[in-house]
Amino acid sequence: KSRYQFHMAESKEDLWEYPWILIAGTTQSPSSIKTSDKKRGNGSYLDGITSDLHNMKNFINNDAEIFDIKNRDRLFTILQDMEGLEKNYVLKRIKKCAEKSGKFMATIHIYYTGHGETNTGNWCFSDGTL
Question: Which of 16, 26, 27, 98 would staple 69 via disulfide (CB 3.0–4.6 Å)?
Fold first, then answer.
């Protein structure tokens, strides 16, 4: 059983109560990891990741204003290194984000964009998967 819990926001306000961390997987994972192959006919894989991060950053920074949410500064960090992002660094930043809330069992929003490992959906990084 996983020690991590995931839940959907119950209201628009819930989207802004907790910090966000945006993560972009690497374009190359170790050769032992089989990744899903999502060919893009109209651009590169990198363009898709860049667009995803841009759209999510805009959503986090701008939509809070649309919903008149008071606490608008919720983007904790964006992790992106297309060739060298390592899983231990990602885990450290996720932990740091959770610790920032100062609450036990803090809730944070995590958005990942990038390759997923075939048949698992695990996130892919330069040194393995999470």
Answer: 16
